[in-house]
Amino acid sequence: MTIEKTLITKHDLEKLATLINVCARLGRDVSGYGMADVNPNSGNVYIWLEDYSTSLYIGLGSENVYALWSCGYCGEEYKMEVTEDTTENEIEEWVSTLDRNDGEHCEDCEVEADDEE
Questions:
Q1: What per-residue confidence (pLDDT) applies to 98?
Q2: In what order do the strands lie in the sheet with 65-70?
Q3: pTM over 0.70
Q4: Rounded CA separation 1/55 (Å)
Q5: CB–CB of 45/12 below 8 Å?
Q6: How do residues 64-112 score in pLDDT, each as one tens digit?
Q7: Are 26 and 83 contacting, i.e. CB atoms less than 8 angstroms apart?
Q8: How many CB atoms sit inside 10 A of residue 61's CB?
Q9: Average pLDDT, stretch 27-51?
Q10: Three-state SS for 63?
């Protein structure tokens, strides 16, 4: 994982430390391809890792950690709060309820996808 140089404030670095700790607790391997950065539009500090279906982030003005899944077809984003009790299996089960078409479409774009067939 690459840590981008845009993470410069004390608050950003504290959030990054929290996210790394959550990755460790969940069993996520941060040594692979991925990045930690701050989104310049939302202020979210996030970790994206290629080997996992969700990114983890902490929003601007928040201390809560969220898992974020994005539909690969329409780009719709869904979030789930990650608590101290949340497991990686629970996150993956949540993603499976959103990912309705074998990794290609979410529930929100399912009708559009059916029209193309």
A1: 84
A2: 2-3, 34-38, 45-49, 55-58, 65-70, 77-82
A3: yes
A4: 13
A5: yes
A6: 999 999 988 888 899 999 999 999 999 999 998 887 655 567 777 755 5
A7: no
A8: 7
A9: 96
A10: coil
Cβ distance 67 to 91 under 8 Å?
yes
Catalogue the E-assigned strands of the chain. Answer: 2-3, 34-38, 45-49, 55-58, 65-70, 77-82
Residue 109 structure tokens: 């774009």
Q: Are strands 45-49 and 2-3 parallel, antiparallel or unpaired?
A: unpaired
Residue 5 burial class via C-beta count within 10 angstroms: exposed 0-12, middle 13-18, buried 19 and up? exposed
Of 6, 20, 14, whose CA–CA distance to 62 is shortest?
A: 14
Tokens of 115: 């029209």
d(CA 91, CA 117): 30
- Rounded to the nearest 5°, which phi and psi values hold at 28? -80, 135
- Confidence bin at 48 (pLDDT 50/70/90): very high
**Per the structure block, which two tokens stand in for 100?**
């309705």
What are the structure tokens assigned to 87, written together?
């497991």
- Judge contact between 70 and 57, C-beta under 8 A: no
Can you read off the two tokens belonging to residue 96?
């499976």
